[in-house]
Amino acid sequence: MPPLYRCHVSFSGEQGTDDLRSLFDHWIAEQGVERQLPLDPGTTTSDGATLSSARAESPDASAIRFSLVNEVEDGQCETSLTAILCDDVSTAWIDVEWTPGSAFATPPDIRPPDLATNLLTRFDCSVGESPIRPTPIVLEESNVVGFLQQLQEPDRQVPVVVVAADRWDDWTASLDRCHDLQKGIMGLAPVLILTRAANAAMNEGLGSDLTVQSGSISCFSPGLDPLTADPRAHRSVPRELYVSNPDATIRRISRVLLTHALKRDLPDIYRNDFIRQPGFPRHKGIDETELLSTLYRLEDEVAELRSNFELEVLEHEETTRALDDAQSRVSYLQTRLISVKGQGAFDPTPEPAIPAAADSCLEALSYAGQYLDNVVIGDTANSASELDEYPQSQVWSAKAWRALRTLQEYATAKLEDDFEGNLFNFCARPPDGYLPLITRHDVAMQEGDATDNDPTRRNARYFPVPEEVIADGEAYMCAHIKITQGGSPAPRIHFLDDTTGQTGNIYVGYFGKHLP
Fold this sequence. Notes:
The structure is a single chain. The protein has 516 residues and is α+β, with helices and mostly antiparallel strands. The chain folds into four domains: 5-124 and 265-276, Alpha-D-Glucose-1,6-Bisphosphate, Chain A, domain 4, CATH 3.30.530; 126-244, Glutaredoxin (3-Layer(aba) Sandwich), CATH 3.40.30.10; 284-349, no CATH class; 354-512, no CATH class. The protein contains 15 helices and 20 strands. It has helices at residues 17-30, 114-122, 144-151, 171-184, 196-206, 239-244, 246-263, 268-274, 289-340, 361-371, 381-387, 393-415, 423-428, 449-452, 455-459, and strands at 5-12, 42-46, 49-57, 62-72, 75-85, 89-100, 126-127, 130-131, 137-139, 160-164, 191-194, 217-220, 235-237, 375-377, 443-444, 462-464, 474-476, 480-482, 492-497, 506-512. The strands form five sheets. It has a six-stranded antiparallel beta sheet with strand order 1-6-5-4-3-2, with helices on both faces. A five-stranded mixed beta sheet has the order 9-11-10-12-13, sandwiched between helices. The longest helix is centred in the middle third of the chain and has 52 residues, at 289-340. It starts with a strand and ends with a strand.
């Protein structure tokens, strides 16, 4: 299967085998392995850890490969350092690969090994013209013009991660968060942090489609000419998610960067001269040719499917945003037609009073607290932030924000005595002047008998509410909104409708993975 991590860089050819061996030996000592790499090509074992060393020569270069294999839960984890050493420019890459112990094993959560940090610290590394450093690069306003030129080079080979200083926090806090982000994506891309002045200058140079918001992260993909050819290819993480859930942020950015890292080809000389030498990954035994051919064909297919999936998610996000904009337009035009008897239907749509979409599930909850007067959000930030660790999180967050806005629309209709009935009825047949942003098929006003009659599953759906709503201070929230209709984790929003009660509010007790 494809590596779970890859740092692939180049450096001056002056460094040789001894430098890299020393680097690897130092790292395995940090891992608690008492033995060092075998001096000659071969393998040695120490306390369940397997160390391997390989070397091969060609007329134009030499190749080395060092690896450490550890037993982990449900499988084996191999960290390897491979290098092609030439007189002028050498290339090295660090892979972390996982071999499952069973067909149903789940890949472990892999972070960049300290070996990558040590490599970037010891050597002056780059990918093409892009330097890869072990710490963030601070970009001042005076350097923005030159950086924008580099960013827009169509031959750029690696993504660039840009972090904007947070206007709601001091510089030290912004820099500390950026250092933590760098550790989580070490070796996958250059990381730059913009001062506030540099942020303003950069936004002016990029234009509105690629604006970097204060406190947010933008990941600028390579290979686009011009850079604005496909704005959706440049992924971003809003400040709300970055500040409140840095782990989810790192996972989201890592997925994007790793896809690019695995797309980059390893050197031709490695594929042509070394890859089948003893000790290197595709060395073939007498009876292994057909098996290995099938294995690597399947690996290539998996990598292609993963890339296609990422594109499908991007297209879905774009469609969702287009739908949000269209529904905002329809709502505005309906209001205009009612108030002016048909006049002004083609007036420009004004800037919405509330955001049309949320970029993360956590941001959707935050928006609800800011903009929705009759939707009260409970203690569900942790369960919502877990959703932001999935590739589909931006699709789910857009749907969740539409659902929360629909709850407010419904509550308003009830408070204005414009509607009688529940949320399901409201979405099926909304009164004049109201526009639900989800369908009746997304709403379930009760659970099935299997849930209602099972104490464990029923108890999982009790959430806190004010005592003026229920004296016990908690309610069974069987009513829920389906963010997706099936699959896993099938996010749900569980709520209690008190629009006809003392408070007139709707209480959201839970937003997260499908409850048991």
